[in-house]
Specification:
The structure holds 2 protein chains of 2 kinds. By secondary structure, chain A is an alpha+beta fold. Chain A has helices at about 1-5, 25-30, 50-55, 70-75, 110-160, 210-230, 230-245, 320-325, 335-345, 350-365, 400-410, 420-440, 480-485, 495-505; strands spanning about 20-25, 40, 60, 80-90, 90-100, 170-175, 185-190, 195-205, 255-260, 265-270, 280, 285, 305-310, 315-320, 375-385, 390-395, 450-455, 460-465, 505-510, 515-525. Chain A is elongated. Chain B contains 4 helices and 5 strands. In chain B, helix 1 (about 30-40) links the parallel strand 2 and strand 3. The chains are: A alpha+beta, B alpha/beta. The interface of A and B includes residues 400 and 492 of A.
Chain lengths: ~525, ~120
């Protein structure tokens, strides 16, 4: 037995389709336990020896075996004399390979029976070991992948703007939805001198951590260049020169960079191979073109600049290819024509609602598809339509003066066609917001007025109530709980904000060092609330 | 703040009615509290708040109504309301005040319901 055990070569197993074996020449064996590891013998899945061993009755002398098999040649070259196949449930899972006996005698019948019995008992145990190992490897690889995705997501999230810019007369909205594997989409808003706004959207080829890192680098270089250079084309040129030397092979970045002058609506932009932005005015949709190669491909590129003017009511949409290249269950693409149709239909809704309706439409299109294929990024910029001022007045911060504000508002809105019940709601909301402004903003100082302005624009009446309290939150007072109030567990007060929120379709809060403004929006086009979009 | 609310108490068999007229806001506190004290002196089983002549209720007014309702519940007095405009009826629903008091269109329908329950 000791002779057999000594002659046993280590057997390793790699896969179910092609059992691998390890064998070593006899002289290596004779060097004792410290001998070099035997080298593996790979058996190709189509090697006829697999079928042979699988059906072989027991230990096999391979010397006299006649078979066209590369693995057989390798086994012989490794000095193997006797092979005992390990078969369990009809499947070959490995081999016991033995070199010559140390005594140089042939293996006896007893030796063979012993080896066969050993193989029969070892095979199921080895198979269990293989399965455990496969499962462990799978778990490890899944964990590694999950960890990588978490890192990629973290990088991505940290480099996306936390909020969209607030511009008088403009509505800006953005949405980013990472695919499970996290692509390299990004967008950015950059405050520039003279009140101009830099707008960026981009997409790094590839996914995961490498794409996220290139995205972070692109964003940083672009931000720095945008502060130094005026022209968008020059900015992209600079970014391209910075990226080219270091970007990993086979990776590049598509990117659109535009500079908007909010005062005039003038937009100058350059495009490094990104999806063309879409503009809609009064339901007429057009693509804005500017030529340029993606960033990071080659140095010395120049980028064409295009100028467009966003007139009042115009809508601009920037998007990533994850939108237009999304497939439905029958592998049809969403495409740019569906996007344009949606734009045409949504020409006079705020940006947030355009994005919402696009995402809804995309969701319906891809229903039945298990997983989002690529990152989806949407940036919508809308210039408010012509506005007409309905009321513009101030009231002194004196208790009870919210009634005066309500009366003046009512006079201003006398010709509006708002449904009477909704008008009552607006009056209550404006009264409550004025009370808050007089008390919490102006501390009931009669010298400090509350400014109320109501305009009709974009299918809504917008009433802004401004006090002198400076920027502040609107408080996170708990939702009033009537039962708790009746039981004396909560103060009977605390209804103001609750009423405001329930009376109007939208409420926006903004402010600066000196002023605090609450804007209340009552839609007159039959639309409902859409969250916090401007 | 000037009182802009008048509250007149009318005691009836088993039920007291508070007729409210004007604005229910911060200035209404004394009138409101006084009316409840007066109404509860006859230990009625129920109390009807008549909002028919009320022009305006703000969040402070809602708080006064909540306070009165809390006291009435502690005293074991059922509270009903009538004469609310559609707008304030909606506010009573949003704030869930209507879950804790019966709401009638006017005093007459509140009275007939009261008689029916006796």
């Amino acid at each position: 037995m000791s002779t057999i055990a000594h002659s046993l070569r280590r057997v390793i197993f790699r896969g179910r389709t092609a059992p691998d074996v390890v064998a070593s020449p006899p002289d290596a064996e004779s060097a004792g336990p410290a001998a070099a590891e035997p080298s593996p013998v790979d058996i190709a899945p189509n090697d006829p020896i697999i079928a042979f061993f699988q059906s072989a009755p027991g230990a096999i002398d391979i010397e006299g075996l006649e078979l066209e098999s590369p693995a057989l040649d390798q086994l012989r070259a490794a000095g193997v004399r006797l092979v005992v196949p390990l078969v369990t449930q009809g499947e070959l899972i490995g081999l016991l390979n033995l070199g010559p006996r140390l005594s140089d005698q042939e293996y006896s019948g007893d030796d063979r029976r012993l080896l066969e019995s050993l193989a029969a008992q070892a095979a199921p145990a080895v198979r269990v070991g293989q399965l455990v190992r496969e499962q462990e490897a799978e778990i490890r690889s899944r964990e590694r992948l999950d960890q990588e995705l978490a890192v990629a997501r973290l990088i991505q999230q940290n480099f996306l703007p936390r909020q969209v810019p607030e511009l008088d007369g403009w509505g800006v909205a953005a949405d980013y939805r990472p695919a499970r594997e996290v692509g390299g989409d990004f967008y950015d808003f950059i405050d520039l001198p003279d009140g101009r706004l830099g707008i960026v959207i981009g997409d790094v080829t590839d996914k995961g951590v490498p794409a996220a890192l290139v995205m972070a680098a692109t964003r940083s270089v672009l931000r720095a260049s945008a502060q130094r250079l005026l022209e968008p084309g020059a900015v992209l040129e600079r970014v391209n020169e910075h990226l080219c030397p270091d970007i990993p092979e086979n990776m590049f970045v598509t990117c659109l960079y535009g500079v908007l002058e909010p005062e005039t609506g003038r937009l100058v932009f350059a495009n490094a191979g990104h999806n063309l932005p879409v503009m809609s005015v009064d339901g007429v949709v057009s693509e804005l073109r500017a030529r340029g190669m993606p960033l990071g491909l080659m140095t010395g590129m120049s980028y064409e600049e295009t100028e467009a003017v966003l007139e009042p009511g115009a809508h601009l949409l920037l998007y990533s290819d994850g939108v237009t290249e999304a497939h439905d269950a029958s592998r049809e693409m969403f495409g740019s024509s569906r996007l344009a149709e949606q734009m045409a239909r949504s020409s006079d809704v705020p940006g947030g609602r355009l994005i919402g309706s696009l995402l809804d439409s995309l969701g319906r299109f891809t229903s039945g598809v298990a997983e989002q294929e690529d990152d989806i990024t949407l940036v919508a910029i809308r210039r408010a339509g012509d506005t007409s001022t309905l009321a513009d007045f101030t009231v002194a911060s004196v208790q009870g003066n919210e009634r005066e504000a309500i009366r003046k508002l009512e006079r201003g809105l006398v010709n509006s066609t708002v449904d009477p019940a909704r008008m009552e709601r607006l009056k209550t909301a404006v009264g409550e917001a004025t009370m808050n402004a007089m008390e919490h903003g102006n501390g009931f100082d009669p010298e400090l007025p509350v400014h109320v302005r109501a305009v009709q624009a974009d299918g809504a009446i917008r009433v802004s109530i401004t006090d002198h309290g400076g920027a502040r939150g609107i408080g996170d007072a708990p939702e009033p709980d009537l039962e708790a109030k009746l039981a004396g567990d909560q103060t009977p007060r605390g209804w103001g904000l609750f009423l405001i929120r329930n009376m109007v379709d939208e409420m926006h809060v903004s402010g600066d060092e000196h002023h605090h403004t609450v804007e209340l929006v009552l839609r007159t086009d039959g639309g409902g609330s859409d969250g916090n979009d401007a | 703040m000037a009182t802009t609310l008048e509250a007149r108490v009318q005691a009836g068999p088993g039920r007291a009615t508070i007729h409210l007229a004007g604005d229910i806001d911060g200035g209404a506190r004394d009138a409101f509290d006084g009316a409840y004290r007066e109404a509860s002196s006859s230990s009625p089983a129920s109390l009807l708040l008549d909002f028919d002549a009320v022009d305006y209720i703000n969040s402070t007014g809602i708080a006064l109504i909540v306070g009165l309702l809390g006291r009435a519940r502690a005293d074991g007095v059922a509270v009903a309301a009538c004469g609310l405009s559609d707008h304030y009826r909606e506010i009573f629903e949003i704030t869930r005040l209507s879950d804790f008091m019966s709401i009638y269109a006017d005093e007459a329908s509140a009275a007939s319901s009261h008689e029916g329950s006796e």
